[in-house]
Amino acid sequence: MRISEDNKLEKIIIVGDRVLIKPKMASDQTKSGLYLPPGVQAKEKVQEGYIMRVGPGYPIPADFGYDEDTWGQEEEEVRYIPLQAREGDLAIYLQRDAIEISYLGEKYFIVPQSAVLMLVREEDL
């Protein structure tokens, strides 16, 4: 899957430690050869999909990492611990923590980083 095909997502800003996932089309046939209706597949506990957008990460308190130079600053910037997930990664995540949204006719999930169990990263993306 190429991320550049979804330029329509550039306006979306994901907040905090969350990621936007486009669900991967699941096979409607089980290993034993049974065909499952779409509703049964959607209720599976573990899902997989491609990460389309990533939030900035976990916010760090303003007084974390005291530095002499910060006394002269009037306005403090918010700093974040970045997430492990990157755009284009294949994510295995817990369905129960995902929030389903529809954007421009496409189905996506907003998932907290803590619900992502595993990432598969293709280095050439």
TrEMBL record:
InterPro entries: Chaperonin_GroES, Chaperonin_GroES_sf, GroES-like_sf. The keyword ATP-binding does not apply. Pfam families: Cpn10. GO terms for molecular function: ATP binding; protein folding chaperone. Keywords: Chaperone. SMART domains: Cpn10 (SM00883). Belongs to the GroES chaperonin family. This is Chaperonin.
